[in-house]
Amino acid sequence: MLQFNIKGDNIEVTPAIREFIEKKVDKIERYFPEGTNATAMVNLKAINHSQTKVEVTIPMKNLVLRAEERHDELYAAVDLIVGKLERQIRKYKTKINRKFRDREGIGMAFAAVDQVPNPAYDTGDADDEYSEDDDIKIVRTKQFDLKPMDEEEAVLQMNMLGHNFFVFTDAESNGTNIVYKRKDGSYGLIETSVE
What we know:
Layout: E1 2-9, H1 15-25, E2 38-47, E3 51-59, E4 64-71, H2 74-99, E5 148-149, H3 151-161, E6 165-170, E7 176-181, E8 187-191
Parallel strand pairs: 1-2, 5-6
Antiparallel strand pairs: 2-3, 3-4, 6-7, 7-8
């Protein structure tokens, strides 16, 4: 069952907006196995009073679904996001089922739903990013030692290397963390944990 956490930045989340988002995003719940509980975190942000940015993140036990869309119309952005999420689910369900057919866990992340695209969410463009025929191919492998450091040093190292992310061992927690550069130029931190 999907729960919703909807926040607005420079946008008032009216009951009509909340109802529309919940109704649209709730449609992807049909892809989840029975009894799945997840929280859809939806962030709305007005950009220069002309565009709306909508982000939807759904963390689940074995994966995280995330999509982001900017559009002049809030409702159109939500429609586009639902289409992106459905394409992500279909793509990864196909790949995961092919590769991990006999394993529990990630292979069981989605319910059995027909692979027929939903024309209501088809934007008309050949979205190569979510093409179901793409094969994952590792073309290069690197090995390196994880040096203990703090987040600021990791960001400096990342910038010196000219990369968009950097993996490091946190000096305080001794955990493996990742810093990354966001599209808006700010930085993000991913802290790992073992279940």
